[in-house]
C-alpha cells in the first residue's frame, strides 16, 4: 500500500517517516518535490502543498503538477489536510472535519487534465467527490484514537489569498457550507481525474468573518494549527496504519466515462 499525504497550512512535515528521503518528480506540468519513506509498514509520500517556507499562495499552487507527481509515484490513495474557517457556531476552532462535499468559488485555476485535443474531453462524476473508502478510514482511525471529529462537512473553496467578508460568509452558510478554505479545489477534482482515491481532513483554525468577534489573521491560523498538530498527526499515523486497498469506483473514474463516450 502506498499513501500520499498532502500537507496544508501548518503541516509542513508529516512527522511519520522512517528513512525519509527527498524525491523530485518531473511532470509535464512542472517539477514537484516529495519526501518518501515508510510509516506503519506502508510506503508514504509527503507533499508540502505550499512549498518550502509557505511561499505559494493558494491561487498560485501548481495543483496539476502535484497530483500528476503523486500519480507518477503510483500512490493508492491521498489523504489531504486543510486549514479552514468555520461557517457554523457549533463547529469550533480545533475541531477536525472529514469533508464529504464542496462548493467551488474559485476562478482562473487549472481545474482539469482534459482540455480537449490530444488530452481528450472527460466529464468525471462528482456525486461523491471525496472517496468513501478514504473517508471511512479517517473516521475509523479517529474513533480508534478517541479523537472528536465532525464526520461530514461541506467545504466552500474561495480564490484567496484574502479572507472572506462577513457578507460572503453569511451567503456561504445559507448555501449549506460548513467550513471555508482556499486550496481543496481543484485538488480533489484532479485526484478524481487521476483515478486516485482522495480524502481530506480539515482542521478548523478560526471562526469565519462575522462569526468571529475579532479580525482574522494568518498568524491565528498558524497558532491554532500548531496547537492541534499532535492530534492531526495521530490521525494521520493511525489512518496510515489502517489503510488497505479496496475496490473503489475512484480507480476507473475516467476509464468508465470514456467507455460511455465510445
Automatic annotation (TrEMBL):
Q: What GO CC terms are in its UniProt record?
A: cytosol
The UniProt GO MF terms for this protein read: S-methyl-5-thioadenosine phosphorylase activity
Judging by the UniProt lineage, the source's domain of life is: Bacteria
Q: In which pathway does it act?
A: Purine metabolism; purine nucleoside salvage
Instruction: Please state the Enzyme Commission number of this protein.
Output: 2.4.2.1
Residues carrying the site annotation Important for substrate specificity: 164, 218
The record places domain Nucleoside phosphorylase at: 2-238
Keywords, comma-separated and alphabetical: Glycosyltransferase, Purine salvage, Transferase
Positions of substrate binding: 182, 206-208
Q: Which reaction does it catalyse?
A: a purine D-ribonucleoside + phosphate = a purine nucleobase + alpha-D-ribose 1-phosphate
Coiled coil keyword on record: no
Does this entry carry the keyword Glycosyltransferase?
yes
**In Gene Ontology terms, what is a biological process of this protein?**
L-methionine salvage from methylthioadenosine
> Which Gene3D superfamilies does the record cross-reference, listed alphabetically?
Nucleoside phosphorylase domain (3.40.50.1580)
Q: Which InterPro entries match?
A: MTAP, Nucleoside_phosphorylase_d, Nucleoside_phosphorylase_sf
User: What does the entry list as the binding residues for phosphate?
Assistant: 9, 49-50, 183
What job does the chain carry out?
Purine nucleoside phosphorylase which is highly specific for 6-oxopurine nucleosides. Cleaves guanosine or inosine to respective bases and sugar-1-phosphate molecules. Involved in purine salvage.
Q: Which family does it belong to?
A: Belongs to the PNP/MTAP phosphorylase family. MTAP subfamily.
Please share what else the UniProt entry notes about this protein: Although this enzyme belongs to the family of MTA phosphorylases based on sequence homology, it has been shown that conserved amino acid substitutions in the substrate binding pocket convert the substrate specificity of this enzyme from 6-aminopurines to 6-oxopurines.
Subunit-level organization: Homohexamer. Dimer of a homotrimer.
Q: Give the protein name, as stated in the record.
A: Probable 6-oxopurine nucleoside phosphorylase
Designated gene of the protein: mtnP
Amino acid at each position: 500500500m502506498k499513501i500520499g499525504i498532502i500537507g496544508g497550512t501548518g503541516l509542513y512535515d508529516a512527522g511519520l517517516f522512517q528513512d525519509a528521503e527527498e524525491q523530485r518528480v518531473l511532470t509535464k506540468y512542472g517539477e514537484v518535490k516529495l519526501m518518501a519513506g515508510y510509516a506503519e509498514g506502508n510506503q508514504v509520500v509527503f507533499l508540502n502543498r505550499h512549498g518550502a517556507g509557505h511561499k505559494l499562495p493558494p491561487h498560485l499552487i501548481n495543483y496539476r503538477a502535484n497530483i500528476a507527481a503523486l500519480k507518477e509515484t503510483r500512490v493508492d490513495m491521498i489523504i489531504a489536510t486543510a486549514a479552514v474557517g468555520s461557517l457554523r457556531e457549533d463547529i469550533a476552532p480545533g475541531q477536525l472535519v472529514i469533508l464529504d462535499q464542496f462548493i467551488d468559488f474559485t476562478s482562473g485555476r487549472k481545474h482539469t487534465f482534459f482540455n480537449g485535443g490530444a488530452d481528450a474531453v472527460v466529464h468525471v462524476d462528482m456525486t461523491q467527490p471525496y472517496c468513501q473508502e478514504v473517508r471511512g478510514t479517517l473516521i475509523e482511525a479517529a474513533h480508534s484514537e478517541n479523537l472528536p471529529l465532525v464526520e461530514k462537512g461541506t467545504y466552500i473553496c474561495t480564490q484567496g489569498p484574502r479572507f472572506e467578508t462577513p457578507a460572503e460568509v453569511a451567503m456561504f452558510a445559507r448555501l449549506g457550507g460548513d467550513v471555508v478554505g482556499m486550496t481543496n479545489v481543484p485538488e480533489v477534482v484532479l485526484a478524481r481525474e487521476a483515478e486516485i482515491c482522495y480524502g481530506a481532513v480539515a482542521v478548523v483554525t478560526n471562526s469565519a468573518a462575522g462569526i468571529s468577534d475579532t479580525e482574522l489573521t494568518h498568524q491565528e491560523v498558524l497558532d491554532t494549527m500548531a496547537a492541534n498538530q499532535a492530534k492531526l498527526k495521530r490521525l494521520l499515523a493511525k489512518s496510515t496504519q489502517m489503510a488497505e486497498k479496496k475496490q473503489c469506483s475512484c480507480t476507473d473514474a475516467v476509464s468508465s466515462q470514456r467507455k460511455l463516450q465510445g
